[in-house]
Design a protein that fits this description.
2 copies of one chain form a homodimer. Chain A is an alpha/beta fold. The first copy, chain A, contains 12 helices and 14 strands. In chain A, the strands form 2 sheets. Chain A has an 8-stranded mixed beta sheet, sandwiched between helices. In chain A, strand 10, helix 11 and strand 11 form a beta-alpha-beta unit. In chain A, helix 8 packs parallel to helix 9. Chain A is elongated, with a radius of gyration of 26 Å. Chains A and B meet through helix 4, helix 5, strand 2, helix 6 and helix 11 of A and helix 4, helix 5, strand 2, helix 6 and helix 11 of B. Chain A binds a DNA duplex (16 and 16 nucleotides) through helix 2 and helix 4.
Amino acid sequence: MSSGSRTARHPTILDVARVAGVSKSTVSNVIRSFEGVTDETRQAVDRAIEQLGYRPNAIARDLAQQRTQLFGTVIGDLNNPFHAEMAKLVERESAARGYATMFSNTLGGGAAEATGIEMMLEHRVAGIVFLAFSARDRPLRSSLKGRVPVVFVGCSEPWADSVVAADRRGARLATEHLIALGHRQIAFLANALVEEHGHRSRLAGYRDALDRAGLRPGPSLTWGEEGPITTVGGKPVRLPELLRGHSRVTAVFSSNDFGAVELLDFADRSGIGVPDELSVVGFDGAAVTGLSRIAITTVAQPKEQLVRLGTEALVARIEGRSTGRPRRRVIDVELVVRRSAAAPAGPQRQRRR
Amino acid sequence: MSSGSRTARHPTILDVARVAGVSKSTVSNVIRSFEGVTDETRQAVDRAIEQLGYRPNAIARDLAQQRTQLFGTVIGDLNNPFHAEMAKLVERESAARGYATMFSNTLGGGAAEATGIEMMLEHRVAGIVFLAFSARDRPLRSSLKGRVPVVFVGCSEPWADSVVAADRRGARLATEHLIALGHRQIAFLANALVEEHGHRSRLAGYRDALDRAGLRPGPSLTWGEEGPITTVGGKPVRLPELLRGHSRVTAVFSSNDFGAVELLDFADRSGIGVPDELSVVGFDGAAVTGLSRIAITTVAQPKEQLVRLGTEALVARIEGRSTGRPRRRVIDVELVVRRSAAAPAGPQRQRRR
DNA sequence: GTGAAAGCGCTAACAG
DNA sequence: CTGTTAGCGCTTTCAC
């Protein structure tokens, strides 16, 4: 039945034509379910296809048609559960629309992002879904613009379509929640893998809330070798130290759930009680935050909706149904209150204002 | 500078040739960095490429060369952190070897798996990495065999190369750990998304351990609507009930970490203390199990090594460096002891044997 | 309704 | 060292 060689040559449309006793283009017509082929002929062709185990060559088709049924998906970090969840949705949505998808995990920009996009462009993907984007690389942006339809999902760039969550409002909600709980010194934890735009918006929302409450922004934390760290007067200060003293930090708003989970873990390992000594609020709505043991209060992004609208917009561009200036859609978010944030304890215990 | 239309036609090798004032094949020669092109000519071509923003068309190249630089990666479920971690590694490894990768998230077989593989085959992927596989679909297997190099990573099939963790031994270690802790009634929790082979091996390892200790296998749990469930004498029995009575279950070995995490969460929500009332051990070594609040004892698979060896084997097949019968590599695993498993409490408190 | 023929953009001999 | 040419497998007019 099978020959010895590992990978036999694939039968072509010509082989099928020969077996079916028809011409090449008739086979093509059958494959493309083109109207106007005798039932008889069609059946003969189908039989030949079956018999040969023929499988259309997408490469040849794409070359002839001058277009592919391929999406590129740019992901920040699959280790981040939220990103993985989004990637899964993109794959599902693409498949449902008949598109295959190529992934590139960029780890927040840099060389991986550039080569990944380059690769997608060379494969002439019909469109690219950006689940993360680091605009740092100028040439990248220009090689994208006008070359291929693009949509930013959960992040955004002014020069292309995007579907984003209400980052700023969400961050404000999160921070207001903390303020309502009685916190006065609220730090902001940023994660390198959150792309520029989201980061800025979330930072802005955080500041909005503080402003309205007449509070000053707390320290800005990033991840250092040994946990969250900030800089005060040129000197590095680690989180545990920030938790002491009279103007001490009592809460942290993390710009994403991955960071919030890590922060929680850091606190646990450092003997810092959450939420007793430190309240934590995240952003994204990653499934892991819903675990009873984690129970992180977070701002949930409507993942399905973001991805659905994003791919819809992309396909509309690809098919020419959508033209003109970039469209931006903002989807509302929701604060999911869990147990990682509570009223601050400490010296001013229960004292209001 | 730019025309009005959304996606301008891509310049071709011919455009470059025209601008550089050379022939088509000379351009091809410099692109393929073919030896024997004058520096002068090369520079002229490079300049033309730069000027036009030329980007080689991978589709045309692939068609002409009769091969692609594309991998297909079949994933079980990106929502499962272990799968996401593995997928990320495959992408990284592929990119490092110059391969782009197409993903298909199959959710454990069925239609999604079949169409995903079909799609990869039509795109003439150079090889497929299976991170999960459901052998249920007979025709699938036959359309794969001999058609394209394939490697199973973390799972396996007798008809193709595979790199797997020592599933059976790992499961035995996990179960022995539980036995050593004093457990006598240990249930096995299976997850639908673990493919046949891994499931069977892990079940076998679990039984090995019980056998050696002269114990009988405990109930076999699966996920029902309302948590883990088993069948006793044709009647469904939920986990909480199993935890009562004289021959009650005191520990569960979950065949994967995703299930273990869910089980832990189920226990937390049901007021079942872990590890006080119930010990839990998982399998995979997903990062999430390492969180201080989760702290699930698990059998860690060497992810990097699995993926590295897997892609190596695949590339060797693709390049013809490896031929003949399927090779199977088994990589050793390691029990990572954390806090989800402890000595059983209860009536026979501290009583030995 | 079916077949012949001209590409799609590139590679890979093979002449010059 | 460079140019000419014949495909790769399929689509897509356009005659028959």
